[in-house]
Every structure is written in C-alpha cells, then in structure tokens.
C-alpha cells in the first residue's frame, strides 16, 4: 500500500505540475536534443562512418558546431507545450487518484496509482503530439544545416499549410503508446519511492530534498525504460517525409528491425537515461516546492 497525503486537489496538482514542467525542460533539454539527433541520424552508407558515434560524440560535435545554444535548439516549443502539458499531466494524475477514492481518507494501492498515472498520459497527448512533432523537426533541421522553419510557430504554420491539422498531429497514436504505460510507471514509481524513503512516523510531505530528487530521478528512469522503444518509432515517424510510412508505426518498426536490428529500438538510450534522472528530479522537486507554497497560501483549495 502507498501512504500518500489524504486530501487530493487536482487543481493544486495542475499549477504545481506546470512549475515542475518548466524545471524539467531547463534541466533536460540539452540531452533531449542529443537523444533526437542520435535516434534520427541517417544510416551511414558502405565505407562511411556514422554522423555521431554516440552520446558524447554528439554532444561534442553539437557544442563545437553550434555552441551552448545549439543544445537548447527547439526549446521554445517544449516550454510553451510543457508548462500546460505537465500541469495537465499532474492534474490527470490527481483526478485519477481522486476518482478511485470512495472517501477522502482512502489510501490507494500501487495498481490504482498506476491506473491514475495512465489517465494522466491520455490527458497530455493532445498537447504532447504536436509539440513533439515540431520539436523533433526543429532539432533535425539544426543538425542537417538546411533551414526550412524559422521557429516553432513557423513550423506549425507550414505543417498546417502542407497537410492540414493531421500533419500537426502526425504521430499521435505513437505518442499515446509511449505515454500511457510510461506515465503509469512514472507516478507509481515516484509514490512508491516517496513512501519507501519516508522515515518511520513522518509524512511523505516532509521528505528531504535529496530524497525527493532521488525519487523523482528514479521515476524518470523507470518511465523511460518503458517509453524508449515507442519513442524511437515516434521520432522516426514524425520526422519522416510525408507518405514514407503509409501503414504508420508498423512500417517504421519493420524498416528499423530489418535495417538495424532489435537494438535500434533503444537508440539514444544513454542520452535518455542521462537526461531522465536530473530532468525528472528537477521536475518533482519543482512540483513539491510549488505544492508546499500552494498549500500554504490556499490550504482549503
């Protein structure tokens, strides 16, 4: 059983989650850029070496070619998208928990927390899918050196002009496949670690900052362990030319396994895991700090 605080306020979760999301982007975007570049780099021809040999090589080359700002390419889209997205994500989790409580004093089991986390993944896809599509296209453009989009808004406009709203939402099914189980794992792991790390006789709300950082970071690791294979397929699918994969993710999966083997589904693994810990540690610390502040200014909300 998990012993989270009894009173659940989806509204406070909304605002605290938004702040947590901003903390996550600032901490994690450089490694997200590297992850997408590794996942989508072209397959080298016979006798050619790969554009990037790995996480460190990609980091060095990006830094040498584009400077520190190169690592923050495409960050405007996730900041615009992530703040409301994490607000909705944490709201969805709070709502998922509240819906499963028969009385406000009910303590939820871990499967119930997993189910509440999965609901949050459904909530976020509407914002996540277009934001991810735009972010991936901008990150790829920066790596290729061919400038097609002036920025996130220009990218959205061009996509809409080319193929309407469907183009902006390309990859939605894959985003759902990635986020629903991964979000369940994310929140369940965090609540479990919070409970495990809470000293006897104390409340999980009194957890020390290092414990919150550890629980948040590990939640990010568990989240991505589930999310990487659909994320690789999603990045490929969202950055592919229109019409390349007529049967959607099945075509991407077939092509990847045929050309590069099953290991290709874990492309960018090091970059993802390196990013997952600090980014999600920052996210949950931001969330807990904001929650404490909201409980202080509006205890009855």
UniProtKB/TrEMBL annotation:
Subcellular location per the Swiss-Prot or TrEMBL entry: Mitochondrion membrane
Bilayer-spanning residue ranges: 12-31, 75-95, 107-129
UniProt xrefs under Pfam families: Mito_carr (PF00153)
Solcar repeats: 8-99, 108-196, 207-293
Membrane topology reported for the UniProt record: Multi-pass membrane protein
Record has Membrane as a keyword: yes
Major subcellular site: mitochondrion
Protein name: Mitochondrial carnitine/acylcarnitine carrier protein
Species whose genome carries this gene: Sinocyclocheilus grahami
Taxonomic lineage: Eukaryota, Metazoa, Chordata, Craniata, Vertebrata
